[in-house]
Design a protein that fits this description.
Elements: E1 2-4, E2 7-13, H1 15-42, H2 62-72, H3 77-91, H4 93-104, H5 109-116, H6 120-137, E3 143-148
Length: 154
């Protein structure tokens, strides 16, 4: 609660608008990340990049994972975005995988459901929460402010 000008502002988060802002962030960054991935695939970054490991994660091969990890260490906004998506993936597997496939690779909901072997309805269930996390990353949280006044008549 914030006390400004003798009125109390009580802020609440507007989840729906915040999720819409997160979706906009995803749509903004996805082409940039895709462009960076294409650039990174064209440049060799070490001799171990040609080795394929068997312990790859669901959804992409290990060379793609190495490229994503490489992008996450770039010290700029796109790198921060990739790092945040990977951070979410460690906290919540389903939401993180959705964000990785949607916001880094640009897959549709149907393609994501097939890759993760879950129902498309489940994807829709987690989508708003995933976009909410992106909005928090980008400082695009929408607040609802309620102002209360107290009057006293003498």
């Amino acid at each position: 609660m914030i006390n400004i000008f003798d009125g109390n502002f009580i802020s609440k988060i507007d989840m729906e608008k915040t999720a819409q802002n997160g979706k906009a962030v995803c749509e903004l960054y996805q082409p940039l990340v895709e462009k960076r991935l294409k650039q990174a695939k064209g440049t060799p970054f070490n001799s171990a990049s040609f080795v394929m490991f068997s312990g790859n994660q669901k959804g992409c091969n290990s060379s793609d994972l190495k490229l994503i990890e490489r992008l996450s260490w770039i010290d700029e906004q796109t790198g921060n975005y990739v790092r945040y998506v990977l951070k979410i993936q460690k906290k919540d597997k389903t939401i993180g995988e959705f964000l990785k496939l949607k916001c880094l690779y640009g897959l549709t909901d149907k393609e994501i459901a097939e890759k993760l072997n879950i129902a498309e309805r489940t994807i829709r269930k987690y989508k708003s929460r995933a976009y909410y996390h992106l909005a928090v990353f980008a400082n695009q949280v929408e607040f609802i402010y309620e102002k209360t006044y107290h009057f006293s008549l003498d």
